[in-house]
Design a protein that fits this description.
The complex is a heterodimer of chains A (about 170) and B (about 400). Chain A has about 170 residues and is an alpha/beta fold. Chain A is built from 3 helices and 7 strands; from the N terminus they run αββαββββαβ. Chain A has a domain of about 100 residues: Beta Polymerase, domain 2 (2-Layer Sandwich), CATH 3.30.460. Classes of the chains: A alpha/beta (about 170), B alpha+beta (about 400). Chains A and B meet through β1, β2, β3, β4 and α3 of A and β6, β7 and β8 of B.
Chain lengths: ~170, ~400
């Protein structure tokens, strides 16, 4: 599927759940080969379905979740790629989900893509996002005795002050 | 009967490490039963520091994420910013970027090969491979002024040109590596003792590599044909015909073991030499920067809005930077991800049911910085008595196993 076909395939299946979408095309090299980034914003309730839809085409490769505390919501941007393995066929799919800032929570995708575990755990401790269904494991980057109600990448009272002391 | 498993924590810290980490093993006899990974002992908060810096300053910060991938991170970061702000890069700069990135791959893979040999107990091979590596360090120093942290990358191009006088010197390096490649192949791929110690050790199947989102030589050794240079056209790689290297190209089949990871890396040294040769032969003329005045560039970046993703195939796999430009000089979001982050979980299936003596080579096989092996503690599950296993003792176990197998 070309990027345009892929986007209309997703739109046909997810309909109004896609809040925003665009395709960025880069032309690279002397031969001006095209590479496409698809940017999507989906409703939180349909995020899981989006991943399942992608998985019907090829096993989606997850690169990372980039979080952003905008002050109004916690935005998670999942960076996927699909159609890898063939020359210049890859399409980058970046899916944004906006979460309620008071109680950010989203379902885990580790049952669909086990490789997402590290990045979900990182997002959990840095942004305080709850991943429903993710086993409660120890901190991956922050120290074990780091205060439980401080999330370094939040930009409000829950974020970092000048100095945070470990609890023990 | 008493409980027969032991807990063995290994790690966490060593100054040379990119990502220091602790491994908590549960051991039954000589076999590993379960693994818990605990990285983060030296989380430096680089993305956090980026919040208070402007885009140009972040290039140098990104360069220092890793001492070995010090071209890959700024490469991906510059591409992310260029995509976000719509800045184009002159063709000559794209070719110079690729030359530096591929020289880095040669030095990284040969460094890894030496470390792997060291972990197995072949120190003469370590000396041989690191001697071979010196040539690429020299050429990097000639081209950039530094052996590491090259300071070559800038938004919209590169900071130093490759002069006409330098080209014959690079050609000499290419000739050197064409000869040296044969030696590397003889030592690592034709030698029975390395094969016997690494075949069927630390296996990662095709499905596991896919499910765990593995990248780079770790994924390719398991048969996943994933290589950013092949999958998406970017920079000067867009003009070339690059194929992801899988072990079946050499041995005819894919096992996904440590030996296959050696095959992939050794063949990639040859591939990198060919890429550099192509770049030199097709090096376009022209500018190397789209905007020479940094103050003006900062002004453009300050006004720019948008978000961009930069991917690059680092020696260890896909490195990805995401940048969202916001108001002011600092980016609103900067997310950097090194390949080891994704390859981390591949260790779990690799190490399952392996022997303690295989820990060093299996852990080394995904090419993290091996210094994690600093110290290990053996805890008797019944008495809680601790016995500390140092890096040296662990390596001794590995060497003894090699010697046993060679008898």
């Amino acid at each position: 599927m070309s990027p345009k076909e892929l986007l209309s395939f997703l739109k046909k299946n997810l309909k109004e759940s896609i809040l925003d979408s665009r395709i960025d095309t880069n032309k690279e090299g002397i031969k001006q080969e095209e590479f496409n980034n698809i940017w999507l914003e989906v409703e939180q309730s349909k995020f899981r379905d989006t991943i399942k839809l992608l998985a019907t085409l090829q096993y989606p490769h997850i690169a990372i979740i980039a979080g952003n505390d905008t002050g109004e919501s916690i935005d998670l941007l999942y960076l996927f790629s699909i159609y890898y393995g063939e020359k210049f066929k890859e399409i980058s799919i970046n899916i944004k989900v906006s979460l309620d800032r008071k109680k950010p929570s989203i379902g885990t995708i580790t049952d669909l893509i086990p490789g997402a575990q590290t990045t979900e755990r990182e997002t959990k401790e840095m942004f305080g996002v709850e991943f429903v269904g993710l086993p409660d494991m120890h901190n991956i980057f922050l120290p074990e005795d780091f205060p439980k109600n401080v999330f370094p990448f939040r930009k409000n009272e829950k974020g970092l002050d000048e100095l945070v002391q470990n609890e023990s | 009967m008493s409980k027969s498993t032991y807990k063995v924590p290994i790690g966490p810290i060593h100054p040379s490490l990119e990502e220091p980490m602790t491994f908590n093993f549960e051991i039954s006899g000589e076999k590993i039963k379960s693994i818990d990974l605990a990285p983060g002992d030296n989380h430096r908060g680089i993305e956090f520091m980026g919040r208070n810096r402007n885009i140009i300053q972040i290039i140098y910060l990104a360069e220092r994420i890793c001492g070995i991938c010090s071209a890959s991170h700024p490469f991906a970061f510059c591409r992310a910013v260029e995509n976000a702000a719509g800045i184009s890069v002159p063709p000559r700069a794209e070719y110079i970027r690729v030359i530096i990135a591929e020289l880095e791959r040669i030095h990284s893979h040969i460094l890894w090969a030496g470390v792997a040999a060291h972990e197995l107990g072949f120190d003469s091979v370590l000396y041989l491979s690191w001697k071979v590596r010196e040539e690429v360090m020299d050429i990097l120093e000639i081209l950039t002024g530094n052996r590491v942290n090259y300071g070559m990358f800038m938004i919209g191009g590169v900071r130093r040109d490759i002069s006409k006088e330098q080209i014959p010197r690079i050609e000499k390096t290419i000739e050197y590596y064409k000869e040296a490649y044969q030696k590397l192949e003889d030592v690592f791929l034709q030698d029975p003792s390395i094969a016997i110690r690494t075949k069927n050790v630390g296996v990662l199947t095709y499905e596991e590599a896919l499910n765990l989102a593995s990248v780079g030589p770790t994924a390719r050794a398991s048969g996943v044909k994933k290589d950013v240079r092949q999958d998406q056209p970017y920079s000067a790689y867009a003009d070339m015909d690059i194929k992801a290297i899988t072990p079946d190209m050499f041995s005819g089949k894919v096992n996904g073991d440590v030996y296959d990871r050696i095959i992939v890396r050794v063949l990639e040294v040859k591939q990198s030499v060919e890429i550099i040769e192509y770049c030199l032969n097709h090096l376009p003329d022209g500018e190397i920067l789209s905007e020479k005045k940094i103050a003006k560039l900062l002004g453009i970046l300050k006004k720019a809005e948008g978000e961009g993703v930069g991917r690059h195939e680092a020696p260890r796999g896909e490195v990805i930077h995401y940048v969202k430009l916001g108001e002011g000089e600092s980016p609103e979001v900067w997310k950097a991800r090194a390949p080891t982050y994704n390859n981390l979980m591949s260790w779990v299936p690799m190490l399952q049911n392996q022997e303690v003596a295989d820990i060093p080579i299996v852990v080394a096989s995904i090419d993290p910085c091996i210094g994690c092996m600093d110290r290990a503690t053996l805890v008797d599950a019944n008495t809680y008595q601790k016995q500390v296993l140092t890096r040296e003792e662990l390596r001794k176990l590995s060497i003894e196993k090699t010697r046993r197998m060679m008898q």
